């Protein structure tokens, strides 16, 4: 059966919503032993390699700036991140992970590695790589459409 563009779009959206729920449930279980939430892990993951402003984290994670700000403030209170001056923007401070934040993420690594191994065993490494590439392509296409819509407005 040949599906229309609209049917494909709908199926992709519904499948993505389901995947999001599945990943969030798994991530909650993985994060629980380290004492952090999925939302905290998302923000920490976005700044593992370099500090970013709140707006940059929001763009990276596809969530609102306001929700990132709330989480970043909690993480700062807990000592998992710190705010640093941003040479590129005086008012938009950089959010940087601290050693305590790195420790929390490292505590997730063993369970994370085990889950990744189970998933690769289920679908195969090459197929999993293909799926990741396809999801990345789909996300980039949606970003481009959003940019096009912004340019037109």
TrEMBL record:
Pfam families: MarR_2. PANTHER family: MARR FAMILY REGULATORY PROTEIN, TRANSCRIPTIONAL REGULATOR, MARR FAMILY. Gene3D superfamilies: Winged helix-like DNA-binding domain superfamily/Winged helix DNA-binding domain. InterPro entries: HTH_MarR-typ (IPR000835), MarR/SlyA-like (IPR039422), WH-like_DNA-bd_sf (IPR036388), WH_DNA-bd_sf (IPR036390). GO terms for biological process: response to stress. The lineage of its organism: Bacteria, Bacillati, Actinomycetota, Actinomycetes, Mycobacteriales. Residues 1-140 form the HTH marR-type domain. One of its GO terms (molecular function) is DNA-binding transcription factor activity. SUPFAM superfamilies: Winged helix' DNA-binding domain (SSF46785). This is MarR family transcriptional regulator.
